[in-house]
Amino acid sequence: MRVGFLGASHLGQVYSAATALRGMQVVVVDTDAALITELQLAPSVAEPGLTEAWRQTELLRTCTTNLESLLQCQIVFITKDVPTSDSGNSDLGVIDDLISQLVHVLDGSGIPVVLMAQVQPGTTRRFAGQYDNLAYQVETLVFGDALHRALNPERHIIGIVRRESDLHLCHREWLEHFPAEHFVMALESAELAKIAINLFLAASVSTTNSLAELARAVGANWHDIVPTLRADRRIGSHAYLSPGLGLAGGNIERDLASFLQLAVQHDVHATVIESYVRSSEYHRGWVLRQLAAEGHIGSGVIAVLGLAYKPDTASTKNSASLELLQHLGGQSVRVHDPQAQSNSLASSVTRCSTWTDAVTEADAVVVMTAWSNYAEIDVTTLARLMRGRLVLDPFGALDADAMSANGLNHRVLTRGG
């Protein structure tokens, strides 16, 4: 089977690699010639296992800018990530252009097309009249675990034009390579299912952050409470119960923004969803509030460890770290991250190649991304290199006992102090 992927951003690279690992030939198409040249050698996105998978499946993959090469495929997935603004608003013009180009190329071929990009309800239906064999499939990739989730999906959520019709045989054949339960429904239902998933995640994240803050205030330990919640079958063992610095990464924020836009259009009450946005904005400010309380805003040197919005990804989309750097303005800041890059750092920010360079003579150290590298930091060395004593470690990446033993003022999100 030969499978086409139109759009070679994160989504397209991960799913094309997963498809090739299952033994199918893949044709990866993108209008960005520079990107296609890069993909001839290696993926351009950082995901655990992706580079190895890319190398392993080299003979099964063709990368090209030629849309007509998709005529050689039995099925084509549209896998271009939708650009979003900092507030989560989607720019669907990119998807509209790709679908229009693809429909023109495939006209009369009968090749099934599956839209997998993140869109608002009604988007796929707009194009269904132009192309008969059009479906929508929800992707639920997670940055830092994307390839594993593509290879081992929890379920398949698929929207089709007519509820009573069946999946196209080629789509079914592709799905058989990734065994999981199928949920087949109307196009709009599948599109809304993607938003629904992220809104429930936003609810869990928001509630956890608020409860963890209250736990710190009343002297409780949030880690003591978490097992009682996981034992409740109504909440579950996989619930998001780790406090964090609000929402980041772009996906949940995008679907919050999509819901709020649709709520205005259809006169739907949205106060609860608006509260998730406000909650995220508040909790993203935890580090800044701690620095201000200790007099570290506007004076001294701050070391920031981590630019990525979470570990095991190079993505900085809506990163709390980059937002913190903006608030620190022209203050002297040194940053380190093992993978993530950023072209938007101010001139007062120094990029360091090692964590030791970043923390040397720092008045305060902030761990903004819980990379496993940072869990291995020798706290005695950290204490010796620092000038100040304040270490803000929201996610508890560092050894708490070693922090106390070395006289450091160690603050995390799960307890007071």
A few lines on this structure:
By secondary structure, this protein is an alpha/beta fold. It contains 17 helices and 14 strands.
Question: Can you describe this structure?
Answer:
The protein has 417 residues and is an alpha/beta fold. The protein folds into 3 domains: 2-190, Rossmann fold, CATH 3.40.50.720; 195-283, N-(1-d-carboxylethyl)-l-norvaline Dehydrogenase, domain 2; 286-411, Rossmann fold. Helices cover 40% and strands 14% of the residues. The chain contains 17 helices and 14 strands. The chain has helices at residues 10-21, 33-39, 50-56, 93-106, 123-128, 146-151, 169-176, 187-218, 222-230, 251-266, 271-283, 286-293, 320-327, 355-359, 372-375, 379-385, 400-405; strands at residues 2-6, 25-29, 61-64, 75-78, 113-115, 134-137, 155-160, 181-186, 302-305, 333-336, 349-351, 364-367, 390-392, 409-411. An 8-stranded mixed beta sheet has the order 3-2-1-4-5-6-7-8, sandwiched between helices. The chain has a 6-stranded parallel beta sheet with strand order 11-10-9-12-13-14. Helix 1 crosses helix 3, helix 8 (187-218) packs across helix 11 (271-283) and helix 10 (251-266) packs antiparallel against helix 11 (271-283). It is globular. The mean pLDDT is 90.
